User: Fold these one by one.
Assistant:
Number 1:
Amino acid sequence: MLQNYLVTLLRSLKKNKFYTIINVFGLAAGLACFFLMGYYIKDELSYDRYHPDYEQIYRVVEIIKDTEESASCPFSVGPGLLNDFPAEVAQAVRFFNFQAPSLSLEYQADKKFREKALFFVDSTVFEVFAFDFEQGDAKTALEQPNSIVLTQSMARKYFGEENPMGKMLKYEGKQLLQVTGVLADVKPNSHFTFDALLSFSTLKGIMGSEPQGWVWNPNWTYVKLKKGVTPSQLEALMPDFVSAHFPNFIKADVTLYLQSLKDIHLHSHLDYEIQPNSDISYIYIFLAIALFVILIAAINYINLATARSAQRAKEVGMRKTLGAQKSQLVLQFLGESVLTCLVAGVLAMGLLALLIPPFNALAGKTFSLGTVLGDPFMLGAAIMTILILGLLGGLYPAFFLSSFKPISVLKDQFSQGKKGVLLRKSLVVGQFAISIILMVGTLVSYQQLQLLQTKNLGFNKDQIMVIPVQLSPIVKQFKAFKNAISQSSAILEVTGMELPLGAAYQNHEFRPEGAPAEDWQYFPSIFVLPGFTETFGITMVAGRTFSADNESDATDAIIVNETLVKQMGWESPAAAIGKQFATPGADNARIIGVMKDFNAASLHQPITPFAFDLPNNENQNNFFTRYYALRINSQNIQETVAHVERVWNSFDPDRPLDFFFLDDRLNELYAFEQRINKAAGAFSLLAIFIACLGLLGLAAYTAERKAKEIGIRKVLGASTSSILNLLSREYTVLILIAFIIASPLAYWLLQQWLAQFAYQTSLHPALFFIAGLVTIVLSWLTVSFQSLKAARANPVDSIRIV
């Protein structure tokens, strides 16, 4: 019997090659997309969960009232929590890094690299996190000063195939570091990665003393709670902890809380994240797209399966006449449907192999066909999905065709009835409503990304060359470096700064004049050097900018933006000139200028009060001047870079020049959105393609069903255009209904998504009409392909009585 069913299936598939190809290929494309997106979602949800005790690990977050909510904490918070709460805290670890220091081999100074993923950590790091040791002892690897643990990739980079254990590296060409361990590369599903870890005590040799304090907060601090201790129990103790340790001028504004390790990657968007995170909203978007794509593919399959079922009515009638039982017919149709889905599933694996490389490029992943199919959960989900689709596709024809009376079919009195037609129409409306939502979403997300990348930030970001100088001797020779670099006419302006403008900022304490001694306010601010506003083209609306010729500017001058003036309640920018603040470097700094508002951070955030300050002594200059910024002429970039490199090497021959262009760095702020937008757009187009593929099959079925009607109309003089109108009118109406349903739903969904941005593109009605028009045009083209074929057919063939 099984052999008979299989022969019947193969005969049916062979007889209806066109429908078989559409059914199998459409379903395979939908399954491949669904599996890939499903694995992506599973991967995103797995971040940091490979640590054995991840549910006990928390990051300490610091909130400074009305100023920042920071992923980082002051130096003393970690050790303080471990010391004060031994009953609650099992262990604590801090991560701290400088901006891209250089490492070199001890006896091969030319083998030198700038390392951005290098952290100073407490020796307890391996008691909190489960990083895999390949060489060395986790308990002792970072106990001593000047110890460094490398990842496997980092070890190969410096030592090739040699055993790195015990070998020496040089930090900034001076500090010797001994390799005390080698780790496996950090798993990609981690909210931060690194190439090397240095013992925290090494900082004493680099900075002169091991840093401490309760104000400056550059450490990412993690605690591991003891079993049975809940985060709320420790958080309840935090207010007393802050009151006991933090300075009087800030303790009233500080709140500490715990953030679960497993929530960081998708739910954390704090200031000063250790690395950019993803967002749970994008998981919902990808989940929706995955479900939409598989739903459209399933609708196609079910639609064509039910539509074509009528063509097999005589076969079923004959089988029932010859004694076939209803259960046998049901089993036959269900089996055929499941087998067809299995074939589509096998084809989907091949399509998946083709989709993974471009998807990796778009989403920044490292998936392979082996990792996807080797995942037991994904393999089980794939088998279940195929079986469910097979059963759904076979249920209607199985129970419908097996229930009618054979005499009706054999007398040509069989009809699918209104219910079957209504079901197909409803499914068509549903799949095109989904397609329109996806298309509108793609258009809006593209416009939002364009807004983020092209909006006027209030300063010049183009042709700004940024050079990290922290820890370099050049940081002490700004004037000499500026004079030397400016010998080229390609260098238009030169300045220095604490952080790249537009990408990040610090918060520094300020006390307005007349306020009590303990009444400090924290404002976003950056330490800069003279020439900063000229380099970045920042407009002054009142007063003046810093001047290198005015020596008092370094000790008693600040400039602020318009928003800070408004927040302080001053009448106008002009009224702010001369107002005094106590700053980190001066007790009576005067406002000498007010800048036009600009975006100091990403466009995810609104404009905030902002201040620029000058380092007021050599120590502050050495610490806060971490980058030089050069505005250059864009006519000959290569020659300009060569000139900068020559000057750099004349000042610091032991350290290779490292630089980036500011516009590239700022575009990186939206790199995640850009990748997601491209990936979502690609899968949205795939969903629309699958929908049109199904429409092509239905149009072919309609043309076939109306073949005699079309033939008679042509004999009676009907034109090709009238035949086209006859066959496409029905689907046009269905797509218009889909547009009416999809538009308000898409509008609401996109409003929710855009709410996360401080600056939003408008949901213009034209975007919805474009999506609707494109969908209608695509459907017309799809239907017209079959309609023209039917309209041009010889009417004699269709109306001939055999």
Number 2:
Amino acid sequence: MSKADLHCHSIYSEHPSDWFLQRLGAKESYTNPITVYHAALDAGMDFVTITDHNKIDGVYLLKDKFPGKVITGVESTTYFPEDNCKIHILIYGLDDIQFEVINHVRKDIYELRDYLKQENLAHSVAHASYSINGKLNQTHLEKLILLFDHFEAINGGRSKHNNLSWNNLLQQLNPDIIQKLYNLYRIEPMSENAWIKGFTGGSDDHGALFIGNTWTSAKAITGEDFLRKIREKESLAEGRHNSYHALAFTVYKIAWDFSRQKTGTRKDTIISKLTEHIFDNRGLELKDRIRLRSMKSMADIKGDTLKRSMSDLIETLKPMPSVTTDQRLDLIYSKISQLADAYFMVFLDSLEDDIKEMNLIKLVRNISSSLPGIFLLLPFFSSLKHIHQNRTLLSEMRMSLEIESEPRKQRILWFTDTLNDLNGVSVTIKRMGQVAFEEGRETMIVASLDDDQITDEIPQNLMNLPYMYRFPLPFYENYRIKVPSILNSIKMIQDYEPDKIIISTPGPLGLLALLAAKIMQIECIGIYHTDFTYEAEHIIEDESARNMILSFEHWFYNQMDEIRVPTHEYEHILKQRGIHADRMQLLKRGIETELFRPFENRKALLPAKLLNRNGVTLLYAGRVSKDKSLELLAHVYLNLLQKYPDLNLIIAGNGPFLKELKEILTGTNNIVLTGSNVVFTGAVSRNSLPNLYNAADYFIFPSVTDTFGMVILESQACGLPAVVSNQGGPKEIISPSMTGFVAADQKKESWVKIVEHCIDLYKNHQKTYLEMRRASRETAMLNGNWSGVISDLLGDVMI
């Protein structure tokens, strides 16, 4: 089989489509035609061509010097005259006269097609599903199927997903589809068997980095034989697909070529040589190695992460003859990731102190210090967006033409900032992740954990993103929020090729996930777990802080394609806050009814510290925080204790309000000494919670800030009736008077009255009380199907 890279550019390609190169005023390529020729032969090509945009100067220069090896070619820009949508057509074997005619008729794609057919010129539609000027849609692609029989199946500048999706669609065409399209557009097909397409491949190289890495193969001895095989649809496309970071480096390379040609000089600084050594693959000179060693030593002495990262990057640029270009660029990408992180860490390190000190001058200066990090990121974000352009176009076209895609498992990434904590959000995500894994779904839970945080409880399907910074969450002293390493994390996300992204956090990981979803054009589902706005009102008591959180919440969730809310109550609340109502759906919850179940001889499970073991026992489990209305609970309990001295209270959990709550409940200023009636258990593992739920007689949950209240569902599964607030999500879990009670308001008197009613039921109406326990268990059993919950959220396994 003979091979030829049928899509290469040289210095004669003058008009770039990349916005960055346009702003620079750079050409599309600075590669010498002779360089193209030798690079192609070195890569194993048997024939060489250059396909410059609407130019044949470069390829004719080669044809004159190497006539037996060179095939003439051009990438001709043509247009649909009805809307000026731009298309690129690769044309081969043309002569001077044909080129002049092509340059004249190319303004109309229909005229160009007819001329190519008339002259029997080998040709191929380049990167057909890529929108060159932002106008491409399904109609254009359907017309192209009628107009042309040859397409570029592998374009080395496009992603594997894009190339294979388009190739697969073309291979599933049939006579009925061609007839349907003809009836729709009345365009004569290119041939009598227009459903059978011919394929070519080419690197689409602009920077002399990947020449000959993507090619067309055919059984041929001469260049004419090769072109004939293309015309007869007997050629194959093979080789490399592109990655977003390789595309970014290509843009860097062209910009460097432009800069070097424009200035004609080399600056003698180690930083200015960075790009030169990336692309020339030459080692550092002696004086540069000495300066590098000095930089590393000073960085180690001073603990300067920024300079250390810079020196690591430069050291990576040593010659590596045994590695491929892609491998080399992967390594450099990793070092650039570290360097970008180092710039942001300088800013993040000082941010908290600058804000506390209200030192605006220093804050602005430190923000400025992170700008180089931002500039390092932008080209990669731009190329990632570029390579995923029109992601949904082909899937929509498949549906329209009734072409089935090859079945594959849907890939989902689910992001969370909290995974190993004892809260309802963590419990829900871990359980759903585990069920998804057991069902064989391609679902990864994405978090950023330290090694010692990855316990047996963490699902096996974990994508653990590296982080560059961590900080304590205000008012949540045990939580450490991680700021992910941006470029490293983006690469891990891209490599997984997700079809859907789920976000359970508005924190740093959630923001990264949202950025990835928008850039990669992936469906994004946001889950509203925590009402930070309402919590801020109760914890911070600062109106400006509340408004800031509210504004961020409004912006964040309105970016989602779908919003899952825990209860109908929060569906209403979020609508009032201006979040898109038409995108909201209820998030169902499951419960492990085999773990959370009623036990026999349940009173034997009461904590040993509790002395009044025959009294009614109230239980609160959850975060011990001011926003949970625990001060109200304490005063209600102290009031009732005067009438019911054997009344017990168990507080299970930890939090910033724990010390103050202990002082309220057990302090010497209380009328009744409560040390023998109240037990503080501290943090309790989830597997131990059923013991407490069974030992208690009522679950008391006065919080008004919870969006759902997983502990309510768990307690109900253990047969424990609950008393909850009339605000927030928990009230929707309760069936009043059947599985528990909903307080009328947040006044102490109302809570005293309703809890006193509960005590009376337990002491004097045991039959009614036991019926409530049975009903609580039965209600929870209805929510026990985690598999159904997973299917509702994640959708079908196969797509």
Number 3:
Amino acid sequence: MKLSFDWLCDYVDLKGVSPHEVAEKLTMGAFEVEEVRQVRPEVVGPIVVGEILEIYPHPDAKYTKIRVTKTRVAAGAEPLEIICGAANIEVGQRIPVALPGCRVIKSGAPFPISLRNVGSVTSNGMLCSPPELGLPGDAEAGILILAPSTELGTDCIELLHLKPDYVLFVEPRSNRGDALSVIGLAREVAALLRRPLHQPEWQLPEEELSGSQFDFKVSLEKSDDCPFFSTRVIADVTAGEAPLFIKRRLEAIDVRSVSGIVDITNYVMHEFGQPLHAYDFNRVAGHELSARRATKGERITTLDGKERELTDEVLVIADAKEVVAVAGVMGGKDSEISGDTKIIALEAAAFQPARVRRGSRLLGLSSDSSLRFERGVDVAQVARASDRAAYLIMSYCGSGQQKPRLGKLAVDGHDKVAPVHITCKMKELKRVLGTELTSTEVRELLTPLGFEVTKGECAHVQPGESKEQAVQVAVPSFRQSDVTRSIDIVEEVCRLWGYDNLPECIPPSAVVPEVQERVTDEVRDTLCGLGLNEAWLSSLTSGDESALGLFNEEQAVRVLNPLSADHQVLRQSLIPGLVKAASYNYDHGQQDVWLFEVGRTYRRLLNDAPRESDRFNSGTGVVEQRRVAGILMGQHALGEWLDHSQRQSASQLDFYQAKGVVQNLLAKLRVNQEKIRYFRSEKVPACMHPSRSCQIAYDNSSKKAKREEGSQLQILGWLGQLHPALSESLRFKESAFIFELNDLDHLWGLRSSESFCGVPATPSVNRDLTVDVFDAVDHAAVHSCISSAAGADLTAVELVSIYQQPEGQKSLSFRLTFQNPEKTLTAEEVDSRLQKVRDSLINRLSASFRA
């Protein structure tokens, strides 16, 4: 929002307050001012209106291009000799005269005027062209010619609005449509400076138009799309130039002047925050307008000259034959105001913000109007803004001696706004702000913003409490979209009271972070500690991950209006984004890529799939999961003392290093490591190495269940090497390893409680056990069998080595640690437990042991 300081002064008395002080007040009042820019150079008087009485050649022969004028600058005063080289001056013209001592503009820089001898003639000033006064125009065109009726001696700085203006660039807020207007921000400035607000005043004449030729009809298809729609007819107008003060103010905020009528609608839009649109009455078929949805295939050529195809999601304004405007966005070319327009239909409406936003996005078309409608306009002020524009048009857009005639407002819908009352407890106000304010102080703060504050009673009063510990606040219509709760009232009081006035104090209690934040922080801290860097990637993808085995078309959640082909589907896995990030880094010379991401994935739940009640959104049918994934490639840590051959060997990552990252993460999350299983599976994604990858599962069964019914595994994710074919297509010269854990919320639920035990007073006993099993038996099954058979004294099982035998078998060597906290175990007791382990392995896994 560009706010003209000169314009602002119409509504708030800002004497003694500089534009930069206003900017600071607005910023501290929650309206950030990004910049204050001077938009007009300063012209210093005296510059007055003069009249040319005589024109004659310069007496010196060498000054053939210069003429001497006799110019009177005040009634009854002696005329002054002033030289001038412009060709457009004539006797009898009223022109601006810069007298000695003033300062004008030459070539964009200040230029002082003084008595100047030009040959034998002394020039007593200068006749001014528009650029010399800081006005738009061409200096070559000559002197600025004023209206003959302009009073002699009038101060041109006031007459031509030559005072320097400053524009404040105020950052718009998404829920404050009222703040996209001069009056809206003036209300804020008045409240912050404790000064009165002056609203514009005018008086419309009685309706003069009569006759069926001026009848106009309006209609609404859906009140949900447009609660209030109005049009009024104004006849005998001319689309000439707008008055200078309107043009100057629009020019200051970078709005191009078009014509008097269009400029006035733009002026009122910026003044009130209510967009308006004027149609040529004779180019509206049937003399009727309706707000309705477009039908598929309808087209319109908008004011920017582009033809646009519409859909049934776009709200439009249509006459009896065709669409004449995209509602709330832009008018149509065929019904625009032209130089021949004599009768206009002035439309003012309140369109539903979401509907305008949808139409604007679908058409790729944005405007000052859509910016305001998308944030919401005040339906109660639509008719008033229409009245204001009608008054200005009738005042400044007459055609010669004929004054414009006004028709009555044709309306469909209603502009009545139900009152909203909010009770704000004074106790709550004190608790949040840390300072005690009286109800009178609250009233004095809120009343300038349009709120009506009265003393009230709390709905629920504790015994012994006073009933005057609350205020009743009536919310004005233009604030009902963003002030809906008691805490919103507290916020308004706070920013008007002043954030810098709040006392400094320690919060009464610590805020415990949400569980989701805690697990995310834990994961980030752990992986960063392991040497990985966090990546922040987009949740939107192109949907081309099918070849990676990480995308299911049936479960895809697609964007209705994608910004590009690369951002049309919500991701179902974090891995494709990490692989692309690794490829980008690798192509740019960064070969050591250790990245991870914590993010959300989305998939549509199929009809026959079980509902996951804790994460399933029944309204959308979409399951959201928070996951963590990583990609490891290149060297992790490197000592500068290593030679080239050592550096090459040090860079060779393997599966077990990637597995170690996952194990450390799960251990940090306090997931019981003895219940984690890593096993081969055909269900791993196609992007992974077929024999160097595994699924990760959690064994949720008890020891008794393991013996009787088997394991109950919950799949947590997978890890492994990136498929060599994929690595080759990405031009990776080194192996890359990836992992993904599916559901961080579920992992957090698997956390074991923290426990402590004393230092054992008895020694531990180690035994090594080598067992031969078939290749199809994974080590997790052997580990589980050992743990269940060895008894409670087994404290640790560690896989030491794997030896591949040629007969389709493999040898697994384990180190078993036994310890009893109450007594020292004897060799016989340990051997007995070891024998039970051997028997169990033979019976359950058909294992064998070498002599």
